[in-house]
């Protein structure tokens, strides 16, 4: 019995350490060529396929999966920069659309989540920061669900028009890891000052 309790204690401590380990600190970063070649499907009812480069080719774009970025939409509209949502599945898009109020595209091959996809398993919910993010989202009226593939980690890109390239690349390290909105603003300002 003592062996069983000892093994259980070791397993609990190990799971807490593993769930708080930053596995993705040195994950590969995509370059402009990688992002440009991604095929996306419009979720506006047309199902039109586009290359990701079409999203930023003329005026640049902020490409996101994060709800908080929708608060920047008026500023981005004023500067002529697209705010685009990219999702990896259709589930939940109808619930997400009112928050974004912009174009949403489906990345069926999950290329925007790479080149090395990052996943957080259920053990990630042991992280206090993840639980705090969940409470914060519920406080804002965002209801989560346990439907669909919820383990893949997303991120945010700010990509300049033409060959300006990737001006900001924020990859989530855990659920609820938000990009700093001022970093997004700064990247957009660098984009516009280079035109």
From TrEMBL:
Any one Pfam family match given in the protein's UniProt record, by short name: AhpC-TSA_2
Alphabetized UniProt keyword annotations: Cytoplasm, Redox-active center
GO cellular component, one term: cytoplasm
Classification via InterPro entries: PXL2A/B/C
GO MF terms held by the record: antioxidant activity
Protein localization: Cytoplasm
Family: Belongs to the peroxiredoxin-like PRXL2 family. PRXL2A subfamily.
Protein name: Peroxiredoxin-like 2A
Lineage, broadest ranks: Eukaryota, Metazoa, Cnidaria, Anthozoa, Hexacorallia
